[in-house]
Write a structure and sequence with these properties.
By secondary structure, the protein is mainly α. The protein contains seven helices and no strands.
Length: 171
């Protein structure tokens, strides 16, 4: 380790020691699960450390508030993924046993669903619904407009936004 990296490493060690158990406890209270809390706590610290252009850790005025902000985002993503996974498992339970996918196929589908959910995360709810209804249910723009109670022109604009979002997303 270089001489210049030693103070940064010491600051990182100190920051982690000072706040990690507190953050993990905060997450455990919200999740009711120590394993997931530990994982999300580690992920929070990784995100904080990897954030480009972020303030030096020692310069943070409210480090716990900052950790909570990052932790809340990860917690929401975690909960959304669990809901998505449960919805998929519920749908699978309705299938006859003869057409139930293998464990490997289920894992692949869950990973794909989570990747799609991440991809569409930046869209507004109306744009996201319009896009999913068109792609998954094959609804026409007129049907989507009726469901959303907007004009067909608005639905066209929503679809253009969704396609553009998908094209520029980091895949």
């Amino acid at each position: 380790m270089t001489d210049a990296a030693q103070p940064m490493q010491a600051g990182l060690d100190s920051f982690y020691r000072e706040h990690s158990s507190w953050l993990e406890s905060w997450l455990r209270r919200r999740l009711g699960n120590g394993w997931d809390a530990a994982d999300l706590s580690q992920e929070t610290f990784l995100r904080v450390l990897a954030s480009p252009g972020g303030e030096p850790l020692a310069a943070l005025r409210e480090p716990r508030a900052y950790l909570v902000t990052v932790g809340k985002r990860l917690l929401l993503n975690h909960q959304r993924r669990r809901q998505l996974e449960q919805a998929y498992l519920d749908a699978l339970s309705q299938l006859p046993e003869a057409v139930t996918p293998s464990a490997e196929q289920r894992w692949i589908v869950l990973q794909t669903l989570q990747a799609l959910d991440d991809l569409l995360d930046g869209l507004t709810p109306a744009v996201r619904r319009a896009f999913l209804w068109a792609q998954l249910e094959g609804l026409s723009y007129a049907q989507i407009a009726e469901r959303l109670q907007v004009s067909q022109r608005t639905v066209k604009r929503y679809m253009a936004q969704a396609y553009e979002h998908c094209l520029v997303a980091d895949l």
